[in-house]
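To whoever is covering the structure queue this week,

Two jobs came back overnight. Logging them here so there's a record in the thread.

Job A:
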Amino acid sequence: MRERQKVQEVPRSLAQRVFALTTRGLEDVSAAELGQSPGLTVTGVAYRRVSAMIRGELDPLLSLRTLDDVYLDLGTWEGIGRPRSALRAIERLAEGLDLPSAARVCSTVRWIAFPPWFSVTASFVGRRNYTTEEIKLAVAAGVRRGLGWEYTSDDRASDLNVRVFVEHETAHIGVRLGARPLHERGYKRVHLPGSLKPSVAAALVMLSDPSPGQTVLDPFCGAGTIVIEAALMWLEAAGGDADPEAVA
């Protein structure tokens, strides 16, 4: 029987490796925002990814607005090439993942059911002879064999999300710190065609470098994502649009 509980606490003074994923082209914006977190040092910026070390509270990372998501960094797997044989290597490597330690760290910022259900998210750069879905299943098979934890394909039903991000022949492995992706906002229930992703809208506001007391005006605001993100940054914000459905 699974119970809703916090697993054993870990000392918050320990340094944690993390990485954030962001929208292509916004890596430097996200790195700048990430770097403002107390006790955090940015250690690298790459395609859609910002790496960092943080010592202290992890909770502030869940309030960052230009990131798509933030993960505990579990390390890298090398030699994950294009042939289908890479799937066997992925399954074998997933069997040795130290997910219990990651669960303990995540439990410092949120409640986790134990033993947890886990999901897998995967993406890669370049062409492969296998799909992201096959990567997910290979990781799931390895974790189930190594830990006996239950896998779900429904991320919203999981307690932990394992992230696999493959660049060339290197796979970056992480566990989502929060319960849900950071780019998902509670206010954005409906996605209209052409509507900005909230993390991109937040980046646009930051790039405008508004001064305290200024008003952000979006005269063609659509669903109002930029206006809302500006307001959530404690700016005066207003907007309108000719499409009443989008405004609603």
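Job B:
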Amino acid sequence: MAVYRRGYQKYQGPIAGRWTRCTVLPRFAWKRLFQQRMILLITVISMVWPLLCAVFIYLSNHADLLKGLSKQFQNFIQVNGTFFFTYMAVQSVFAVFLAALAGPGLIAPDLANNALPLYFSRPLSRSEYVVARFATIFGILSLVTWIPGLLLFGMQTGMSDTKWFSLNWQLAPGMVAGFAIWLLLVSMVALASSAYAKVKIVSGALVLGFFFILSGASVMINGVFRVTWGSALNPSWASRRIWCFLLSVDPAEGPGEVACAAVLAGFILLL
């Protein structure tokens, strides 16, 4: 049939809900991101540490395998707040590198190719676009952080007695809350860098530079002024100080969790 003979017909099909429309962008973005070899490689490598932690949990709950070892080593193999703090510290580093690879491709191409009008011509607002991009980076980072952490907590709960769970049940919500703060910060850094630089390579460098430069600046401030409050300007140190509070672990000397939370909140608002 010729084009001019086709009359206009109103769409009569089902209309997706407002939040359902927001899931379209993350769904296609996740599929595109995992087609990239470097992102897939970093994701696979980041699963090595949770597997080693699972082996650690298995050994700690099978005392018969540790009879030939020293008592000091047997006391060392304990699943407690320090164990989950170490797990979070390692996985947080993988989250930064993964964000440096995945984050630049979320907003920068849309700005470089003037594609935003194509998004906003659909029933999608600016805030929904930002939420969708945030959900994309937050979701991919969750795969290597709090989701394996909850699996490890469930493994320890299933292999240990009920006494361990009654004494350490707060580790699970503490770990999830700690990772939520860290992922919120990392995701905002990735999105802000992608929107500001508009070039993938430069955007990824900004993500890494944000953490490494502030880390070096905090050490310089502490050394020059002979103080400890400079550590709060290091996002990694400030986040770990809050993790110590959530996991009931003895913290290092420096600013308290209230000051660190205020600094992190300031960073997030600025980003």
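Note for Job B: The mean pLDDT is 89.

Please reply-all if you pick these up so we don't duplicate work.
Q.
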